[in-house]
Design brief:
68 residues, mainly alpha, 3 helices, 56% helix, elongated
Length: 68
Amino acid sequence: MESLIIHPTKEQEKAIIAFLEAMHVPFEKRNDLLPNHVIAGIEKGLKDVTEGKTMSLNEFKQRRSSLR
């Protein structure tokens, strides 16, 4: 048996589920591929980027070297 990992939109998901059910293909829907703390960290990072809370690689290197 093969496994497929797909990332559909909500609209696509409905169509895919309807197709799989019509074809009697067993499937399971999972949202737990990553631990919750990892997902929360990704969401925070994306929010920071949209709010402009970023720094260049050079800024990062300078801050890191000043901590030593």
